[in-house]
Write a structure and sequence with these properties.
The complex is a heterodimer of chains A (806) and B (171). Chain A is α/β, with parallel strands linked by helices and 806 residues long. In chain A, 29% of the residues lie in helices and 23% in strands. Classes of the chains: A alpha/beta (806), B mainly alpha (171).
């Protein structure tokens, strides 16, 4: 084994710190620490000459552990680590601490105490550095191909982006035609354009010089060479790891050959079967062989398995001029190898028949927004005329009811966010076509939050659409003529209204699609409390899931309008491209590992890991051991804190490294006050300490800060060890419980701290000596205040008496 | 239009007071959609009562107006509103919580004092007239049984009901 040689670099930040800290004393203290072979003082070490000095020392003095005391720790750490790596030393053998923000500035009023604390901080860094081990650089292969699930606006947009970027893309749609909900909705707000219109793919622009947008079926979208479209198909299996997934797809038979069909429509003229047309809200019938609309992709007819008489009839087979109808087609399983997956399965309209007082399903003239959209669509069942389904005559008096099933704790508590605008759009399109139409919108709140949306609402008022502020309690029908009465209170005029209507349109809420849960399980990702796919973090990691390589976009995460779905899709495409673009995934092995001899296959860690990186693998007979995937592990260490048998360790934060750091921090006091150990997570906790120091907020120097990856790594015994090592009090500083960067770390630690308090009582230690704080970066003032108060609290309590100590 | 000084009203305190009472827990869920009002058979008959407005006034902290006014006593407890409220506000129960608060402060409409004394003195809320007693056999109903007044009094005193009312009524 190579002998450990530590080099220590002390920066006084252009003499800013030497006014407070005694650098001569620090340097001579550090020199006496065993294994320290080189000590340098300077004004800065993170750039220019200073950085070169570190590189030279690594090369000429053969130091193999680098400890740097610098300000701006985040920025300087990156530069120093890079330089050291280039000089040939493993980057994980470097320890950078911040003597300015963590010592000199917050303790400027007590310089001698600050100097003593600086000694402790340096000693902790050196002791930890001595125990650091070089980490291996890992490389995993990644396929430059992506599976996109869902052929609506979002899925098509993401697929097109990735295909344009040169990735091999497979787009899978469960329906026989592309387009999703947008195709059924017809138009989108606030421009009243076609919803199905998409941006032209790059290949179009190059070859045909079309730069305009156009609808899916006319665009070159389907002709992008590296994009494969599978309709009538579902994902039924997925295995593998990020970068290398094997996906199984079940493709249902279409019974019509896509290569041969010329969409001449002869087949529908001979087909004898008539069934209600679900796509068109059952307002008309269709044949067993059909297309949804004249403009669809693929432009190939499809046979409805549940309606067709097959060989008993076969008239379509006879009449087809290209022999495209193949009644003996079977469903087939297709296997694809992809590097990443984008989920764009959208949302669906809620069935409001559960809201009994609105009688959807009982009364023919109570319909939903999506059904109305089909009527408004010129391709729709009524050729664009809004009719009463009871007698197919035009509807003149229309009442729209917003928030049907949305914002309703009984059904769907969330605001579906787009129904206000959809209803405004419908009202205006009807009014434009028929100025005589009498339209009333009953609302709780009108939510027009997007760009130009408020003008849309303004225009609706100008056009004479009436608004009633109240949610109707009931809809009643005259059984003779099917005229409806809507019973509502207008809160603004404080009047009870009984609105007469030919047609009542319910703005039914938007809910997750039925296969969301199943697909989530298949992919190993989560759904949120409302049942939509869960984005890992809507601000920091939008469209990402807990598994790298699996991304979400469009309405699958929450109801979205077409422009927002598009935007979301671009984001998911960029995320997937970033992940797979080099064809390999490189990372250092800063991951957890399992000591198989200790593992008791209790299943705690696989369940807890926020990244799904741990699995139980069989070992021998009837015995399983946990196994950490280096690829998926993100190095938070929450598994370490969860393991009841100490069978897991996290590289770079191993127990001996943490213990050495803790003992060193508590070895020098230098103040008359009781020592406090503040264990901070490297995310919000540690940066809150940074910010208090940067703002020169003062707290006593007896508070010692120890950095760990996430508070989730802490085990109960570590709190006890801190007391044993001389801490009079322990502060645990982590992220907010609902803002933990690793999701579960901070809330778990909060429980652990609570539990430890009970345990402390048993040991005869006051539970108030241990406290958890949940802070964010900008709450530096709260850290300073907490540190001050903790010190005062401990002073009042007196010295800690440990059992067994004299 | 009259303007009232907002700062005089302890908004949070009153809604907290009600939501900490049995039945009043859900009051802050209300977003004033008016489903309760249009469901209410009383509100459609008289302007003196509107469940939506009772809740709104309470949330605005209009404690005196609510507790001394007559509105809260007009609810007929049909529970239509509660059945249909999309925010699961237990409106009828909130109104009971308001009534209980009012009673604690001595704001009791006469009719309720009469009910209470009837219950404690005769064991019945509705007094039985000679006319009624004569009418029962004519429509085939059995004669009324005695109300079991002693047992009832024990229950009423064990639950503290008897202490809610002015002494003279309970004698």
């Amino acid at each position: 084994m190579v002998k450990v040689k530590v080099g220590v670099f002390l920066s006084d930040c252009e003499k800013q710190l030497s006014e407070i800290l005694d650098f001569e004393a620090l340097a001579s203290y550090v020199k006496k620490v065993p294994d320290v072979v080189f000590v340098a003082k300077g004004s800065e070490f993170w750039r220019g000459k200073g950085l070169q000095e570190i590189v030279d020392a690594v090369k000429s003095k053969k130091i193999n552990r680098v400890v740097v005391a610098e300000s701006l720790p985040k920025l300087s750490e990156i530069r120093i680590v890079q330089a050291v790596e280039e000089a040939g030393l493993n980057p994980y053998l470097v320890e950078v601490i911040d003597l300015k923000d963590h010592c000199a500035w917050p303790h400027r009023d007590t310089p001698s105490e600050a100097t003593e604390k600086a000694k402790a901080m340096l000693l902790a860094a050196i002791e930890r550095a001595k125990l650091l081990e070089p980490l291996e650089k890992l490389e995993f292969s990644a396929l430059k191909s992506v599976l996109v699930i869902g052929g609506g606006i979002a899925g098509m947009q993401a697929a097109e982006d990735l295909a344009d970027l040169g990735f091999e893309v497979h787009l899978v749609e469960k329906e026989p035609f592309l387009g999703g909900l947008a195709a059924r909705a017809g138009r989108f707000f606030p421009t009243d354009d076609c919803a199905i219109c998409i941006q032209s793919p790059a290949s179009d622009v190059k070859t045909i010089t079309y730069t305009s947008r156009k609808c899916v079926y006319r665009s070159g979208f389907s002709e992008i060479p590296n994009l494969k479209i599978l309709t009538n198909a579902r994902v039924v299996g997925i295995e593998g790891v990020p970068g290398n997934y094997r996906v199984t797809i079940e493709k249902k038979p279409r019974y019509v050959d896509e290569e041969k069909c010329v969409a001449c429509d002869l087949c529908t003229t001979v087909c004898p079967v008539e069934v209600p047309d679900e796509y068109n809200a059952k307002l008309k019938t269709r044949k067993a062989i059909y297309v949804n609309m004249p403009s669809v992709y693929p432009p190939t007819y499809v046979i409805d398995e549940n309606a067709c008489k097959f060989q008993d009839c076969a008239k379509c087979v006879e009449v087809c001029p290209t022999k495209a109808v193949e009644l003996d087609q079977k469903s087939e399983k297709i296997t694809l190898d992809v590097g990443g997956v984008i989920v764009a399965t959208g949302f669906k309209e809620y069935d409001p028949s559960v809201i009994k007082e609105y009688h959807y399903g009982d009364y023919p003239n109570v319909i939903t927004n999506l059904e109305l959209a089909r009527m408004i669509d010129g391709f729709g069942p009524t050729n664009g005329v809004v009719v009463k389904p009871s007698d197919k005559k035009p509807a003149k008096k229309i009442v729209m009811v917003l928030c049907t099933g949305s914002r309703d704790r009984r059904w769907n508590p969330w605001c579906s966010s787009i129904c206000c605008m959809i209803s405004l759009k419908h009202a205006m399109l009807i009014k434009e076509a028929d100025p005589e139409a009498d339209i009333t919108i009953c609302y709780i709140d009108i939510r027009t939050t997007g760009r130009e949306h408020e003008y849309y609402y303004e225009k609706a008022r100008e056009m004479g659409i009436k608004f009633v502020k109240g949610r109707p309690t009931e809809i009643v029908e005259d059984p003779e003529d099917h005229i409806l009465i809507v019973d509502v209170e207008d809160a603004v005029s404080r009047r009870f209204l009984e609105l007469e209507a030919d047609l009542v349109v319910l703005a039914a809420s938007m809910v997750p699609t039925e296969d969301t849960k199943e697909l989530a399980q298949l992919l190993g990702i989560e759904v949120d409390q409302d049942g939509f796919f869960k984005e890992y973090n809507a601000k920091l990691r939008p469209t990402e899931t807990k598994i790298r390589g699996v991304y979400l976009c469009g309405g699958a995460t929450f109801p979205k309008d077409a422009p927002t779905s598009s935007l979301h899709a671009h984001s998911a495409a960029v995320k997937a491209a970033k992940f797979l673009s080099t064809g390999k995934i490189e990372k250092y092995q800063k991951t957890a590992f399992v000591n198989e001899d200790y593992c008791g296959d209790c299943e705690f860690c696989p369940v807890t890991c926020p990244f799904g990186a741990i699995t139980l693998e069989p070992k021998g007979e009837d015995h399983f051991v946990a196994k950490v995937s280096d690829l998926k592990c993100e190095g938070c260490g929450i598994c370490v804190g969860t393991c009841p048998l100490n069978a897991i360790e996290l590289r770079h934060s191993r127990p001996n490294q943490m213990a050495a750091q803790m003992n060193a921090l508590l070895s020098v006091n230098g103040t008359s006050k009781p020592l406090v150990l503040a264990i901070c997570c490297s995310e919000c906790g540690h940066t809150a300490v940074d910010s208090s120091g940067m703002a020169m907020m003062q707290y006593p120097a007896n508070v010692r800060v120890m950095k760990i990856p996430c508070t989730g790594i802490l085990q109960v015994h570590q709190f006890l060890e801190a007391f044993k090592a001389g801490a009079q009090g322990v502060m645990v500083v982590g992220c907010k419980t609902d803002g933990c960067h690793y999701e579960v770390g901070s809330p778990k630690t909060q429980k652990k701290v609570h539990l430890t308090k009970t345990l402390l009582k048993e040991y005869g230690i006051e539970p108030e000596r241990l406290e958890m704080f949940n802070l964010v970066y900008i709450e530096g003032d709260k850290f300073a205040e907490a540190a001050q108060k903790m010190t005062e609290r401990l002073e009042k309590m007196g010295t800690l008496q440990l059992m067994g100590s004299s | 239009m009259t303007y009232e000084k907002e700062e005089k009203r302890p908004v949070i305190e009153f809604s907290k007071e009600i939501s900490s009472r049995l039945g009043g827990e859900t009051i802050t869920f209300c977003y004033q959609c008016g489903t309760c009002a249009s469901s209410c058979p009383v509100a459609k008959t008289t302007e003196k009562f509107n469940p939506r407005e009772v809740i709104k006034q309470s949330l605005l902290g209009e404690r005196q107006e609510i507790l001394t006014g007559e509105a809260i006593w007009l609810c007929c407890s049909c529970y239509n509103c509660q059945e249909r409220c999309p925010q699961k506000v237990e409106i009828a129960d909130v109104i009971y919580a308001l009534r209980n608060t009012a009673i604690k402060e001595g704001n009791i409409p006469n009719i309720y004092t009469e009910f209470a004394s009837g219950l404690m003195n005769e064991g019945r809320i509705v007094p039985i007239s000679k006319f009624l007693e004569k009418k029962r056999p004519e429509v085939g109903l059995p004669p009324l049984k005695p109300a079991g007044i002693d047992a009832l009094r024990k229950i009423l005193s064990a639950t503290g009901f008897d202490k809610l009312w002015p002494k003279k009524e309970a004698s």
